[in-house]
Amino acid sequence: MKFPRLFSSSACDMAIDLGTVNTVIYVRDRGIVLNEPSVIAIETRDGIRRVKVVGNEAKLMMGKTPNGIQAIRPLRDGVIADIDVAEQMIKHFIDKALNGTRFGRRHEVVICVPTGSTMVERRALRDATSNAGAYRVQLIEEPMAAAIGAELPVTEPRGAMVVDIGGGTTEVAVLSLQGIAYSNSARVGGDRLDDAIASHIRRTHNLMIGEATSERVKCQIGAATPPDEEGQRIVVKGRDLVNGRPAEMTISEAEIADALAEPVGQIKMAVMTALEQTAPELSADIIEEGITLTGGGAMLRRLDEALADATGLPVKVADSPLICVAMGAGKALEDRNYAGVLAVS
């Protein structure tokens, strides 16, 4: 039996999790080699645009750029919003992942796509990757990659549920026999959590904060359920909307949990909808296997407890949830047992 060329011995074949917030690259036989923010800084001089920096350096510029420089996130809600800029970003990341080694014309890429993405959005992702130098592009749906990375039994006739909470979307899927038996996608993720925090602080304290500050608040004291009392506290700095001056104030964990109640509720609803639509035999398997959380959003404190209370099922967070999707795509790249989960674009 012959397998696709994806399973060649090329040491430069790779799997890419091109996320709204972070891009993670897995290279054959080397594992995860890159994990950087999906941000690119573009400088415009004399009407000519050129890439200034990409990744970690570009993220530091967000909200702080002078005239002539833009820090851009070319993906929104898990799909490409600006294909030209995304192509430049992918090229840079591929070059960095290969340590400057020439990305030969026979090297191939597995790239992760949201289940809810349209054919147009998938074609844009494929074209951007092809233009970045890939000879052949194959697609794998993000929940499947996440399940493989979390070592769920996706090749067996057993149901497994994975909830992949990324920066732009939450993907909920029930998997069995290398296929997706049911899936749905909610446009809620880490970005919505950040927006909810910024909106709450602006509305209740008349303080405007930036993306980086709201993300820091989420990571340090964000939680899906309120603490017993006020919990931890953190000082946030921004611009006072009343007098226009820089200001700072102290925010509590309980207050942030209240601010996150709406987006967390949307994640719960997506999970409950998936459970209601799941076939009975698969539901029986999920009772034993439980629900596995992956993606950066899975790191929100007490989210597993909130989902366990809502569903009555055991909920666990996968090991290394941030790189779980890329790890799963990398395993599909290397292991012939997962050939059925890949689609030629």
List key phrases describing it.
single chain; alpha+beta; Nucleotidyltransferase, domain 5; 11 helices; 28% strand; disordered N terminus
The low-confidence runs, each spanning 5 or more residues with pLDDT under 50, are 1-9
Counting structural domains, the number is 4
Overall geometric form? flat
What is the count of β-strands? 19
Characterize the main sheet: 6 strands, mixed
Percent strand: 25-35%
Order of helices and strands: EEEEEHEEEHEHEHEEEHEHEEHHHEHEHE
**The CATH class of the largest domain:** Alpha Beta
CATH superfamily of the largest domain: ATPase, nucleotide binding domain
Overall SS class: alpha+beta
Structure description:
With 345 residues, this protein is an alpha+beta fold. It has four domains: 5-38 and 74-144 and 324-344, ATPase, nucleotide binding domain (Nucleotidyltransferase, domain 5, 2-Layer Sandwich), CATH 3.30.420.40; 39-72, no CATH class; 157-188 and 263-322, ATPase, nucleotide binding domain (Nucleotidyltransferase, domain 5, 2-Layer Sandwich), CATH 3.30.420.40; 190-261, Actin, Chain A, domain 4 (Alpha-Beta Complex). It contains eleven helices and 19 strands. It has a six-stranded mixed beta sheet, with helices on both faces. Strands 13-12-11-17-18 form a five-stranded mixed beta sheet, sandwiched between helices. A hairpin with a 2-residue loop joins β12 (170-176) and β13 (179-186). α2 (83-97) crosses α3. The chain is flat and about 60 Å long. Mean pLDDT is 89; it is low at 1-9.
